[in-house]
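Chain A, query sequence.
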Amino acid sequence: MSLFVFGYGSLMWRPGFPYKDRQYATIRGRHRSLCVYSFVHRGTETRPGLVMGLDRGGACRGVVFEVDDADRDEVIAYLRAREQVTNVYLERTLPALRADGTTVSALTYVVDRAHRQYAGRLSLEETVEWVRGAVGQSGPNEDYVLATADHLVEAGVVDPRLHVLAERLRALDGA
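Chain A, predicted structure.
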């Protein structure tokens, strides 16, 4: 039996694991949000950045990857090492409606609102301040935000808040 994995941030464009199928999909009751202070991948504890979390409410269009059963344990171990470095996410299996009309139970990582890294909803100005200049093990925070915004545009996903943030970051970098 296949494993399904839902990606809504960098997993969409840089999964890092083998898969046999990839489809756009929607999860209801959760939305993509730049609501997690990053202490490792895109910032440090002394200078956090911000990364995506799947937070309560709304809906989120992302990507569902179908993983062959033979790769299941290896992929889950990889995802836990990547996503659970500081345990800011809760591992959940949620129904995801795929582009082909089928619904699958997909492993995903939702933000733990009780975790100290949960930033909640920040203003645009606050978000810009946290993102600009933050660098972690996976590189500059701005690169992550801009790459995610660009991939969402390519996928036809409308995320006005992220689009405005990307425009603001590009304008500041061009100034």
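The chain is about 30% helix and 35% strand. The mean pLDDT is 95.
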